[in-house]
C-alpha cells in the first residue's frame, strides 16, 4: 500500500511541475502580446497627435519673414527705448551695450556681438543716388499750412575714408505750396547719414531757402524703406511738422 501511495505522490508532483511550466510560458506569451498591443496603441496615439499638430500649423499660415520680425523688434525698441543716451547707440543682443556712433561701421568690431559692423547696419541703400522718399506732411507749429506731400531725393553722397561713420549727402527737397494748383517748391539740401542712429539729417544749402527748416528722418522701423521724419527750425531745432516717409 505504501508503494502505491508514493507512486501517486510522484505523479501528482510531476503534473504540478508540468502545469507550472505551461503557465509560465503562457504568461510570457500573454505579456509579449500585451506589450506589442500597447506599443501599437501608443504609436497610433502619437500619429494622431502629430496629425493634429500639422493641421494646427497649416491653419497658422506661413512663418513670419525676416522683414516682419525686424519690424516687430523695432516697434518693441521704440516702446522700451535703447537704454543709451543720445550720444551713444545700442549694440543689441542679449546683453545691452552702448557705444559711440563714431565707432559704427568703422571697419572694427566695437560691439561684443559685432553688430556695429553688420552688413545691414552699414548698408548704403538709404542714401544711394536717386533714392526718393515721400510722405504727407502735417504741420503743428511755426507756420500755418495744410497737409501736403513732401519729396526727398538723394542726388549725391561722399563717404570720407578717414570718417566712415557718416556719409555726407546732397538732396533735393520738394513740397506742394498750393494743393489746388499743384504748385511745387524745391530747394537743394545738404546733410549726412548717421549709421549708428539710422538717421538722415538735412538742412538747406542756402539758408534763405526752405523757410529755415531742416529735415531729420529716423529709420527706426526695422528697414531702409520707411522712416519717421520731422521738420524743424535749423536754428533752434524746434519741431514744426512731421511725416512718415516711404521709399518709392
TrEMBL record:
The record's section on InterPro entries has:
Eryth_link_C, Eryth_link_C_sf, Extrac_hemoglob_link_heterodim, LDL_receptor-like_sf, LDLR_class-A_CS, LDrepeatLR_classA_rpt
For this UniProt record, the keywords arranged alphabetically read as follows:
Coiled coil, Disulfide bond, Signal
Signal peptide span? 1-21
**Cross-referenced PROSITE patterns:** LDLRA_1, LDLRA_2
Q: Which Pfam families match?
A: Eryth_link_C, Ldl_recept_a
Domain (Annelid erythrocruorin linker subunit C-terminal) spans 126-247
Give the SUPFAM superfamilies listed for this entry: Extracellular hemoglobin linker subunit, receptor domain, Heterotrimerisation domain of extracellular hemoglobin linker subunits, LDL receptor-like module
**Coiled coil located at which positions?**
36-63
CDD domains given in the database record: LDLa
Please state what the protein is called: Hemoglobin linker chain
Its source organism is Lumbriculus variegatus
Amino acid at each position: 500500500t505504501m508503494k502505491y501511495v508514493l507512486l501517486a505522490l510522484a505523479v501528482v508532483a510531476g503534473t504540478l511541475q508540468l502545469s507550472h511550466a505551461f503557465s509560465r510560458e503562457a504568461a510570457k506569451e500573454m505579456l509579449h502580446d500585451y506589450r506589442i498591443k500597447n506599443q501599437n496603441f501608443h504609436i497610433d496615439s502619437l500619429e494622431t497627435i502629430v496629425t493634429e499638430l500639422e493641421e494646427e500649423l497649416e491653419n497658422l499660415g506661413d512663418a513670419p519673414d525676416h522683414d516682419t520680425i525686424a519690424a516687430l523688434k523695432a516697434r518693441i525698441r521704440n516702446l522700451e527705448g535703447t537704454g543709451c543716451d543720445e550720444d551713444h547707440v545700442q549694440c543689441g543682443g542679449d546683453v545691452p551695450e552702448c557705444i559711440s556712433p563714431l565707432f559704427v561701421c568703422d571697419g572694427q568690431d566695437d560691439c561684443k556681438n559685432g553688430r556695429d559692423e553688420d552688413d545691414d547696419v552699414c548698408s548704403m541703400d538709404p542714401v544711394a543716388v536717386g533714392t526718393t522718399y515721400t510722405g504727407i506732411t502735417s504741420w503743428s507749429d511755426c507756420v500755418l499750412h495744410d497737409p501736403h506731400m513732401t519729396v526727398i531725393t538723394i542726388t549725391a553722397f561722399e563717404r570720407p575714408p578717414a570718417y566712415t561713420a557718416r556719409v555726407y549727402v546732397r538732396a533735393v527737397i520738394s513740397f506742394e505750396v498750393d494743393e489746388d494748383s499743384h504748385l511745387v517748391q524745391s530747394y537743394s539740401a545738404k546733410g549726412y547719414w548717421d549709421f549708428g542712429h539710422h538717421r538722415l539729417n538735412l538742412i538747406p544749402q542756402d539758408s534763405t531757402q526752405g523757410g529755415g527748416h531742416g529735415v531729420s528722418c529716423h529709420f527706426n522701423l526695422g528697414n531702409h524703406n520707411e522712416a519717421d521724419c520731422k521738420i524743424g527750425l535749423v536754428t533752434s531745432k524746434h519741431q514744426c511738422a512731421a511725416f512718415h516717409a516711404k521709399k518709392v
